Model the fold of this input.
Amino acid sequence: MPNALSALMEEEMPTISDCLQNIKQKFIMMHNRTNLAARNKYKLQRTIFNYRLIYYLSGLLRQLKQIIKLVLLCQFILMAGSVHARQGQSSKGRRMDSLLKEFIAHKNQRTAIETKLQQQYQHSKDREWLAFTELLQLARLKNDDANLVEKFEGQVRSKYRAFPNIQARAYQILAYHYFIGEANYEKAFGFYLELEKLLEAQGPDVISDYANYCSEIASAYYKFKNYEKAIEMNKKGLPYALDKWDFYNTIGLCYGQLSKPDSAIQYLKKAVSEAIERKKHDVHRTISLGNIGYIYYLQKNFTAARPLLNADLDGAIRIDDKGLAAGSAIPLADIYLLQGKSRKADSLLRMARRYIGHSQQLERLEKFYPIRSRYHQLLGNDKLALLYRDSTIWAIKRNDSVFNSLLMMRAQQQTDMAKLSEEKIKLENYRDISRTRLWAIAIIFVLVALGLYILRRYRGRLEKEKKRIGELNRILALRQRLSADMHDDVGSTLSSISLYTHSLLMQPQNERQRSVLEKIKRNAQNAQECVGDIIWSVNPDMDLMEQIASKMRALGADLTEHAHIGFSFIETGDIASLKIEMSARRNLYLIYKEAINNAVKYSRCKHIQVTLRTTEQHFEMEIADDGAGFDGSKKHMGNGLVNMQRRADEINSKLNIITSEKKGTVIHLIFPLAGHSQY
Amino acid sequence: MKKKRIIIFDDDANRRDSLSMLLNMCADIECAGTFENASNACQQVELSLPDLVLMDMDMPQVNGITGTRDIKAVYPSLPIIIQTVLESDLNIFEALKAGANGYLLKSTSPEKLLEQLREALQGGAPMTGSVAIKVLQFFKEEPKTTHYNLTEREKKILKLLVDGHSYKMIADKSNISYFTVCNHIKNIYDKLHVNSATEAVSMAIQQRLVKTS
Done:
């Protein structure tokens, strides 16, 4: 039977080393697999993050586009609103214009108009009516009080900024005042230029009397011999003018001065037909005819010129406009001279001189003197001819000094300077605003980006924490599973070994065989216990010192019971609340196990007492037996005591062994708590 | 003396062989059969007529708990001892509730194994601290009819078990005999079975309880 048995055993029992090899391979494979998984996970995380970033950015861009759309919409609404406002303005302006005309024309109605205006203001609370009233005051008093006018000048720009119509009218009144009233052409021209600027800025929709203002400005330019500008202004106002006669007429005259006779005649003919159509006073027709005649005269087309100039002269005399008559008489006289009719010429010239004197339009002398000189030249009066030549020069000089282009240029320059500086300020403001806007946008963008970044970091950190915890949990679970697997495989194999050996032991064996079998069995059992302890020590449920104490008690009871030794296990202090980390608890338990084993096996004692004491600072463990004690030198006991000391050092504990032959052995361990008892 | 018959359910061939060899070496025990899984447990019991069943916990197809339940449904008085690798296995308690009479760790030494088997054959029931905790918890959580609730003495014994005392130490501490302690443990098991096992089982236990209480 034993032979068969041993044969069976040899066949079927797997070696421990094979088993262990198997387990080791499994462990390595599992380890590799977890590494790979971790790496892939990292790659995936990065990609996910990139996609997330892109998604966030595109979301941000969408938001920005929406904001820009909103801003544009707001701008559009504002513009539309302003257009509507402007249209309302112009109808009011027209009312004011007509009121002003009435005011200036009919002196007796002035107070009535003023009271009506006051009522209007009270009713509508529109400050523009108030301003208009002030304007009327100005219109009335300007000839009396120069100070008032000056004061008003300063006000115009600032006070009436909101009312462009009032501003325009004020400029016009002031310009006219200086032009006609004080003959201060420089100042007058300055105001005309301001008016021109205002018209440019506001446009015909806002300024109700746009056309008339253009015409007046054009006349000023004409007087200052800037014929191009005159034509320009007239053409600007032409589309908005009801009565286009003055426009056509002046444009025609300008073209005449610019030596463009064809354009001049074209426009003057338009003027004539306009005068007829509009059923204006005949003098308008004749004036224009006269102008055409003058062109012909300049072209030396005397046959065409004479009847036209005659018509003009007749028309002027009919309305008793002496200046106008003089103006047409002079070229007519020249024609007669060139046609040899000196006497007719002389009478015309004398009439012209008289009319010039009466009308005080001394500028006409510039045209008069040369003809008179020619007359005398033809008659052979050389001295007189020379005299009149000198007079011509004088007249030219006089005219020039009055209507000095330089003055005009200077006025133009000043306005230009003012315009430029205004624009510069505007640009600077705009630049500042846009710069601040840009900064604001940049800062907002940076803040938003920062915010997003912080959010992502925070969320990332949270997730990282979660992931870390998940990782730790997974590692823990893995470890437990591994240890369980190992325990299973290894444990079952070891158990089988010990069972087989026990079976053999139950058979009769010789001494040598028996001792060998016993050793085998003991080895297997020790191995099993160790494996069991490892499993137990990595189990996180076994944190509490309380549980360790229970295990200690169970072990002690078990060992002593079989050896028929008395056993007492005492706990003092608050052991329940102690939490000791994994490695420390393992070491404590193993020290205890070694001590108990030694006591049971070697001391031949009757009683073992174990005491566990817990204080604030430390945890004490004492194993005392009443046995024979042992030789203090460590060599005698072998590895056991060395291991105990090593384990005690690992957990920073003090180990005392007090042994004597009579009193037995006490093994005392002090384990410090501060710094250890956290988990 | 007639040998006591024990059958083994275990999926590990190694274990089956070693255990059966061990049992057969004993003078008073013999191994009446080894089976790989418990799918035909009742049939196999019927064929082999054992005095005790050793049931492994983790088996394919039908695990230890189901096997226990199946057998106990037909043979309520047949003692079943569960074998398990880890003491902290939650299933142990489930198996005990299903009617098992006790459990043994696979890592117990052969001597102890035989000792406990012999005890079980005589009607005793091995119990350890970890199971004792669960028993206490179980009775605390589920308020049952007062008939089958734990007595104070039984609770105390369980608590001492939890703290790691052996039966002998408990006997010393409580001033009762070792035999009395074993009886108490047996009663505790019965109460557990009454509350959770199959009807047939509980009927049988109820009769016994009535007799003893």
